[in-house]
Amino acid sequence: QGRKFCCRPVSSLSLAMAILSRQISALTSSSKLKKTSSLALLLIASSARAFGTGTNLGRGHSIRVDSAATAPRGPARCISPAFGSYGSPTRFRSCNLQSAIANIRGGSSARFSNTLEELDSLDVVKETASRMSAAEKLERIRSRMAEYGVDVFLVPSDDPHLSEYVPAAYMRRGFLTDFHGSAGTALITKDKAYLWTDSRYYNEASLRLDASQWDLMKQGMKDVPSINKFLSDAAKSHYRETSKPLKVGIDAFVHSATFAKELTEAFDSAAKDIEVTNGDASPTIGEIDTLDGQQNMVDSIWEGRPELPKNPFRVHPLEYAGASVTDKVAKIRLQMKEKKATLTVFSALDDIAYLFNVRCMGDVETCPVGIAYATISNDEVTLYCDPEKVAPEAVSEHLKESGVTVKPYDSIVSDVKAHLAFDAKNKVWIDSARSNYALSRVVPKASLVDAQNPVTPMKACKNTAEMEGMRRAHIVDGAAMAHFIAWLENAIVSEGRSVSEVEIDEVLTGFRAKQPGFNECSFPTIAGVGPNGAIVHYRAAEGSELLKYLDKTSPILIDSGGQYDYGTTDVTRTWHFGEASDEFRDVYTRVLKGNIGVDTMVFPEDTPGFVLDVLARKSLWEAGLDYGHGTGHGVGAALNVHEGPHSISPRFGNKEGLKAGMVTSNEPGFYDDGNFGIRIENLLEIVDTASSKDESDEPPSKKRRTDSKRFLKFGKLTMIPIQKNLIDVSLMTKAELDWLDDYHEEVLAKVRPLLEEGTPAMDWLVKSCEKIERL
Fold first, then answer.
1. Long-range contacts of 413-418 (CB under 8 A, 24+ apart)
2. What is the DSSP letter of 5?
3. Residues 749-755: contacts with CB under 8 Å, at least 24 apart
4. What is the 3-state secondary structure (H, E, C) of 233-265?
5. Bridge partner residues of 527 (DSSP)
6. What is the pLDDT of residue 652?
7. Parallel, antiparallel, or unpaired for β 152-155 and 246-249?
8. What separation in angstroms does the CA of 487 have from each of 90, 507, 575?
9. Which residue has the higher pLDDT, 4 or 671?
10. CB burial class (10 A; 0-12, 13-18, 19+) of residue 741?
11. Residue 10: what pLDDT?
12. What is the DSSP letter of 753?
């Protein structure tokens, strides 16, 4: 059909199979054709087998066939919702199962995954990045810097919406550095290059960076300056040598307004150290150049850069959303009136998806959001996006009924300017911490309402329908995990196999894909065997030098989750199917004690999360151990797996109070670089203590306290057993052992109805939920 593929050519057979698979995916929506469709699936499997290919058909259908030369795993495997499974468990490498896609990985084995037009987003970036060495890329960037007249150029991880996970087109820092973690900023000078990243990625970044070209700046370490401190010191030196300001080039669309403000303040503060004569004002030692009208420097050297995605929105039903668009807009306008704002601007993609009750698949890997901006004025609600995103009739009707006007994506800046020009008294509400500098800078200070946007707290505190969906998603996820761990334990212990991290990822996703309402993973699965478990955000890949195989001699850390129509999950468990060392069991138990410490806490409403963080670390600290990441993050309801504004962290900067209806992760861990990683993560909902027990049973003293202050506690969402034989019972208190037994009793009661009696999954679940043996 004349499609242009991103990387290498695709055979006519592969193209034909992809097109045919798309047609079958459509056919399977009709119950009358399920039998015919399933037969066609098997025919494709047979044809694919002869050519060593595989295909993922969407709608819960998948075929994966490996050539005997590359992966001798037996006959073709097929899973169909109409006819059940054939042979071994279904494997899905790609987490997005909604449409057929050609994902060509070369060699004699190929898998079809997300879109007919492009490879997996990260694969595209890596492939195009591999065409040049680190030295070549930096040489070209420095040539552009000289052309544009700047001394420094910054390349953050962000897109124009300051997203944590970004479309492939905005993976500029990954392309330039070959480090693909979700957090990091590259800084290039005329003769040096630096990468700042946080403790989650120290290990991974040190492995990925070309040390001959890049210096790793371990953000948060004692002697490592912040980027602003580094640049302000560099500006002083540069000014003393040249009497000219240091020019720092940035792309204003991918930096926050707060970053620009803080860097300017850092320059002004550092300028006070410059000696002046005759009482002159401090000189300007550093300037930000937004390079308006110039192409982003990385884009200018990036051959084969992916195009921006234009995947359509889908309507998020009211039964899962719990509140209509009209109701949400009405609440926002009341807050606008209080703040005297005439226009509110929304930039964060999850805020927009929440506000308009829409979701999208494919724009941002594992995040059900679409690329767009939005505004609300006193008389208009506007969605700024590509017209293809609202092309489905159901979406256009939904937006029309909600009173939403759709305008071109690129019109947002000019429309904000026009609103301000229309009336000098108009004021624009923008959360500058969550909006890019290009958008925020058009609003003069006198016309700016700079505050947390009104969607953020609405989205964080789930309503009844949203929380019911989250509970359902975690029970369903528990059933998928029971199937998966039963399979994995059998493969390792009974069959004596060594299973690769990639196969573990594929099979786990396959079991999730069988669950009702599953769309994709909620983030790229982390499956780290042995030392790879110590790489906090590790991602296994075929052909990688880091790829390892699980057997009875090593532990594995698996951090994974699912995006369901009705909720989002995120869970980490550390497993060992052999004999764990005493050291491992000791640390595992201390991590578990930290998890229980947070889980059982009762606290006043609006307590900042950092107050609870110490409970997760207490037992580890007693042994002189710690971990570098935070303990908890917010989670969206059928939205992004990482959601603000709250967190549980040792860093005191986030003072957002915890409130009923919020969801948080609870994930203490420990990482011994080069040996193993341990993390135990559950998602928790925050509930009122009075809502879960009979207040008449409370002692009078507690009743008096709660009359003046509302107290909260955590309710369990994750329904997946914790491996008991890794626990050193001698370190556990009776209360902690009781907690474990009670948790497993709840898991069994909720997950058991989703499993069939006599199946390996049921047998594993029942055994795993038995009471722990005590001393």
1. 413/438, 413/439, 413/442, 415/375, 415/382, 415/384, 416/343, 416/345, 416/375, 416/442, 416/443, 417/442
2. P
3. 750/475, 750/478, 750/719, 751/475, 751/478, 751/479, 751/482, 751/719, 754/475, 754/476, 754/478, 754/479, 755/479, 755/482, 755/483
4. HHHHHHHHHHCCCEEEECCHHHCEHHHHHHHHH
5. 558
6. 85
7. parallel
8. 12, 9, 13
9. 671
10. middle
11. 33
12. G
List pLDDT tens digits, range 715-731: 999 999 999 999 999 99
Local structure of 14: helix, strand or coil: helix
CB-based burial label for 125 (10 Å; 0-12, 13-18, 19+): buried
Q: Does the pLDDT at position 556 exceed 80?
A: yes
| CA 357 to chain CA mean position, Å | 20
Q: With beta carbons less than 8 A apart as the criterion, state whether 470 and 461 touch.
A: no
pLDDT digits (tens, 9 = 90+) for 289-311: 999 999 999 999 999 999 999 99
User: What CA–CA distance (Å, rounded) separates 204 from 657?
Assistant: 33
pLDDT tens digits along 638-663:
999 999 999 999 988 889 999 999 99
* Torsion over CA: 684, 644, 357, 322 (sign): positive
| Three-class SS of 623-652 | CCCCCCCCCEEECCCCCCCCEEEEEECCCC
Looking at the DSSP assignment, which residues form a beta bridge with residue 716?
684
**Tokens found for residue 572:** 């980490």
Give yes or no for a contact between 142 and 190, defined as CB atoms under 8 angstroms apart: yes
CB half-sphere exposure, 249, CA atoms < 13 A: 24
> pTM of the full predicted structure?
0.83
281/534 Cα distance (integer angstroms): 51
Question: pLDDT per residue over 193-223, tens digit each?
Answer: 999 999 888 988 998 999 999 999 999 898 9
Rounded-to-integer distance, Cα 21 and Cα 389, Å = 23
Structure tokens that stand for 13 in this block: 């057979």
Pick 134 or 207 by higher pLDDT.
Answer: 134
Amino acid at 517: G
Average of pLDDT values for 677-701? 76
Is the CB of residue 460 less than 8 Å from the CB of residue 375?
Answer: no
The per-residue DSSP string of 69-113 comes to: TT----S-EEEETTTEEESSPP--SSS--SS-EEE---TT-BEEE
Residue 667 near residue 572 (C-beta atoms within 8 A): yes
What is the rounded CA–CA span in Å between residue 736 and residue 748? 18
pLDDT tens per residue across span 87-123: 345 554 444 433 332 222 222 222 222 322 334 677 8
Comparing CA positions, the residue from 346, 354, 371, 355 lying closest to residue 434 is 346
Beta bridge partners of 55: 63
Cβ neighbours of residue 6 under 8 Å, at least 6 residues apart?
117, 118, 119, 124, 127, 304, 306
Q: Does position 2 have pLDDT exceeding 70, yes or no? A: no
- Strand 562-564 with 526-529, pairing: unpaired
Number of H helices, E strands in the chain: 23, 36
215 touches 192 (CB < 8 A): yes
Give, in order, the Cα–Cα distances in Å from 42 to each of 63, 543, 693: 8, 29, 54
For 94, the token pair is 């790609």
Instruction: State both tokens at 422.
Output: 């229309």
Q: pLDDT for 408-466, tens place per residue? A: 999 999 999 999 999 999 999 999 989 999 999 999 999 999 999 999 999 999 999 99
Structure tokens at 764: 């594993």
3-state secondary structure of 318: helix
Locus of tokens 């019972």: 729
What pLDDT score does 200 carry? 83
Measuring CA to CA, which residue among 8, 29, 182, 209 is closest to residue 110?
8
